[in-house]
# Entry
Amino acid sequence: MSHHIVELKDLHFLYPDGTEAINGITFKIFHGESVGIAGANGMGKTTLLLNLSGHLIPTKGEIDIGEVNLTKKTRHEIMRKVGFVFQRTDDQLFMPTVYEDVAFGPVNLGLTEEKVDERVKSALDMVGCYHLKDRPPHRLSEGQKRAVSIATVMAMDPDILIMDEPASNLDPKSRRQLINLLKGFKHTKIVASHDLDLILDVCKRCIIIREGRVVADGPAEEILLNKPLLEENSLELPLSRQHSAVRGPF
Amino acid sequence: MTFDLEFFNIGYLDTLSYRNSFVHRLDPRIKIIVSFIFVLFVVSFPKYEISSLIPFFFYPVFLLTAGNIPLKAIAKKVFFISPFAVFIGIFNPLIDTGTLYTVFGVPVSGGWLSFLSILIKYVLTVSTALLLIAVTSFPGICEALERLKLPKVFVIQLLFLYRYLFVLLEESLRMMRARDARSFGNRGKEIKTFVRLISVLLIRSIERAEMIYRAMLSRGFRGEIRVLRRHRINVYDILFLMISVTVFYLFRSFHLVNLLGETFSRVLR
Amino acid sequence: MHMADALLSPAVGGAMWAGSLGTIIYCAKKLRDKMDDKMIPLMGILGAFIFAGQMINFTIPVTGSSGHIGGGMILTILLGPYAAFIVIASVLVIQALFFADGGLLALGANIWNMGIYPAFIAYPLIYKSIVRKNSSNTAITIASVLSVVIGLQLGALSVVLETKSSGITELPLDTFLLLMQPIHLAIGLIEGFVTAGIVIYVRSLRPDIVENLEGVKTLSAGVSLKKVIIALGVLAVITGGALSWFASTHPDGLEWSIEKIYGKPEIPDKADSIKEAIGKLQEKTVILPDYSFPAKEGQEEKTPSWPAVDTGTSFSGLLGGIMVLSLVILFGLGIRFMSKYRAKT
# Structure
């Protein structure tokens, strides 16, 4: 894994029905960084992630992932580099058993049966779910599904991990397990979430998006404790800090 | 609420199908073939046949007991559904009224006999279908279908259907509950509301399918999906196949019941 | 209504399975060549959607009873005939296994009855000829109602034919038809309106969906008239073939050696009565729609021949039956006991 930069240069994305979702976003992310993306609903978070992972092609501007520029031709290459964990686990786990779901990626990479087996085992071990390998997904709890979703992505050995609302619907214990898991990953991480406490815990940097534009980009500790900034963007202080608000430099 | 009942019912059968027993471990192809042959034998009996059908109960009973399936679950389903067969069969006694036999002095018409025959055939075939899924996981059945050379498109699509069946059922259950919470008697259940509800469900389903497709793409999907092959035919499977088919054949060709009865009645005298 | 195993004979059941399997293979081939990858999850989801949709009941106007959708037509409109047929088949597979709706043998017949007519007859001949890209709501409604009604009528008719040619029911053909067709006409009308309602409403909320799916569909639709005629021909051949095979060979089709063992002449009798019944059937269908119910119809239902062999009501039959039943129960209890014992040790 060489140094990977995610670089967005004046990214614009327009939906077919005319909705402008991204209106000029520029930033760089360095190898190993953990970045949280926050913002009110409908402000462009998911669209941004879909662009970053190659599912949507920018209507204007550029995205470079690990020096590969995103175009219609390179999108599949980009998808391989970027592990995208979807918001709804049911969308991500579509095979009859956990094993087959985690194996799906490696199989498509063309690996041999032994290599596939190795990847599946190590990915499931990473999230502590190897014992669930023969279960059908609809017999898993939400926390287990989330862990397995991450495994499905990790089995592809991605350079960058992108997650859309990873802690939604999780009970407190599963949520804590997820946070610990994420903290253990050395990959470049981009996490979009409403759970500001999670971002504070997992990410060193935070970007706030409003109306498809970046309105703040800096260390998470600073941004997420800046009460006026947060409230301007329809956000609130992380719950864990709500009784000890620290006024930022603004 | 029949929806709730149905929903939990399939859920229950589904859970049972993942258990581990001798019957569960048999190769799904064999189970499908044997069950299908069973049905063929059963329905091949002429319309007045009754006693020769009885030995056939061995098969569903075997599946039930060796598979550790609770009798109540199956019995409830078999007797609860008001089936087409019974509805049509009930006309037989009304039409076919010539007396065929006299039992202890009571005349029995052909119509009643054929109706009883239909009922027995119905119980045999329907319980076997239920037991088949109760002792074979659905993915197992799909794998068997693929190996029996059914088109891959069909099988893959079956797997997807199964995967999202419970998900969508839950969604529509929620919708129904929301609707019922705000309807009174029959108001609120009109067709117009229904159309709205189901259209929303449809749109959501299509959008979900789009997300799933994206998830597939992110993991390198290029059109081919591999169906995992977990089963291999072994000695037990072959034995099961051979024994079952032979036994069915014997039951079908020889009136063992009558033989048994005759022998015994002679003994009794 | 779903066909049941108990009403089928092996020959008819087998014939319908052959027809359905053949169609599945044909559709799969068509899809493999032209299908967009996106269709795969979509087909599965829509199958699950049909299930979910069938669970929601609504009140039928006037009668106040509750009803639910079938779904064959809406699937065909959304996916095109080939994909829709496969989805319909899958839905029926799940119904047969999890809901014991129909049976393993009848599954073939059910797939045919519920799939062929909406996908390959009603849709191409009726729906597509009325509805275009920007058709009015009225056009859609008329097209839906007509398609669904005709699809269901043909399906119901098939059920009747399959049952009668299996020879299990005593119901005379015209009574049977009188039972089935009007009910399905009513069901068809309602489902037709519901289907139209869905298409119209979805179109108003998400016109892109209907367009997009249509795009996906045009890859696989476009059934030419020639193909339809071929399909109809195949259908005629299959049903005609099944019926005539029936009449010409042993009705059991499998030649069980009952008579060989007991030497009773029951089978020829049956063949005659069935031959006659079939003859009447063909006579009647030819006269459609100028249906006349001949007064001599009583003959069709002549008291069936005597299967002089046991029918289980002779004493030994009864005794034997009770004994075997007890054996079966003992057998079952024995296995239960054994597995509990093994579980404990």
Observations:
- Strands of chain C lie at 58-59, 66-67.
- The longest strand of chain C covers residues 58-59.
